[in-house]
Design a protein that fits this description.
GO molecular function: chorismate synthase activity; FMN binding
Distance between the termini: 41 Å
EC number: 4.2.3.5
Strand order of the largest sheet: 1-2-3-7-4
Helix content: 25-40%
Radius of gyration: 21 Å
CATH architecture: 4-Layer Sandwich
Bound molecules: flavin mononucleotide
Protein name: Chorismate synthase
Pathway: Metabolic intermediate biosynthesis; chorismate biosynthesis; chorismate from D-erythrose 4-phosphate and phosphoenolpyruvate: step 7/7
Subunit structure: Homotetramer.
Structural class: alpha+beta
Length: 358
Amino acid sequence: MNTFGHRFRFSTFGESHGKALGCIVDGVPAGIKIDEEFIQNEMDRRKPGKNKYATARKEGDKVEILSGVFEGITTGTSISMVIFNENQKSKDYTNVKDLFRPGHADFTYFNKYGTRDYRGGGRSSARETAARVAAGAIAKLMLKELEIEVQSGICAIDGVEASEYDFSSVSDSEIFALDKNVEQAQKDAILAAKNKHNSVGGVALVNVKNAPIGLGEPLYFKLDSQIANAMMSINAVKAVEIGDGTLSSKVKGYDNNDQIRKDGFKTNHSGGILGGISNGDDINVKVYFKSTPSIFIKQETVDIHNDEVDCELKGRHDPCVAVRGSVVAESMMALVLADMALLNMSSKIENVKKVYSK
Ligand code: FMN
């Protein structure tokens, strides 16, 4: 299934080594100004090949808008966007054609579908996330109209944790670090693993400012459930924490509750969500990425005949997928919020009357 969202929804298509990737975003209200430079800038934040902390695969990731926008304004029709692949090296994958790379989706795709595009993982490759960032940029342009801001950064790499979260320093950092004090140690951890032909994992923090009260549709489309769904759909994500997350299970109720005053909540352990509905406070979500599965150390695996073989990989890979993954997580958050903002409009009859009253 390749579609996400309810009222503001998008579908993606394309494979790592196919001709192109893209998305169709549906349910976007008419009248939103489409800033193409902003969309491209979002793509550039995620794109590979920028520095030694990312894969060397060089993609321009230029987005072409094919429909849904007229004279720079959304028309209310489906917006389709395409990104052509430019820098595939499919030969790097010939030696893994018939075997299952550990940590990858090869084993499960082959057993489920009976066939797979082995070139760079095909559809299971995170190359697809370029299309999500394009869709997410449209969502962000809608959220901008509502003055809702989504941002992200890296809070931990290989267990080296940030103690300060400074979103203003993220754009200057090659690894989108939130804490300048630990940035060098985080970079060193990535390069140390890379030099040993290994990889590291990391954690991204996604923060939402100025979210209105009321986003989220209990019971089964609770805001936290939608966010978890969105984040867990990103490649290599193994855990999602809303607010204090797992810590909430370790502290007493008094310390976990956010007490309320006239001017708002005194603390924000809940991550801005109560009962599956945004409470007007910042929404904070931590997204945990595993270590990149493609490593250049000999590993044990089986081939498609279930014969035991050695696996030796070639190709270009991110030594820490959390870094570029943080931009994808930010995009998925924007897509969830745009969807929930549109759904929330019909929560009260007063709202419906505002549209239909004569
Ligand atoms: N995995 C790799 O082996 N090499 C990569 O270069 C790579 N780049 C990624 C870039 C991003 C932005 C993200 C989010 C993930 C990347 N991954 C990479 C992770 C794999 O796509 C993913 O681990 C694999 O498809 C198996 O899926 P799973 O980890 O969700 O089970």
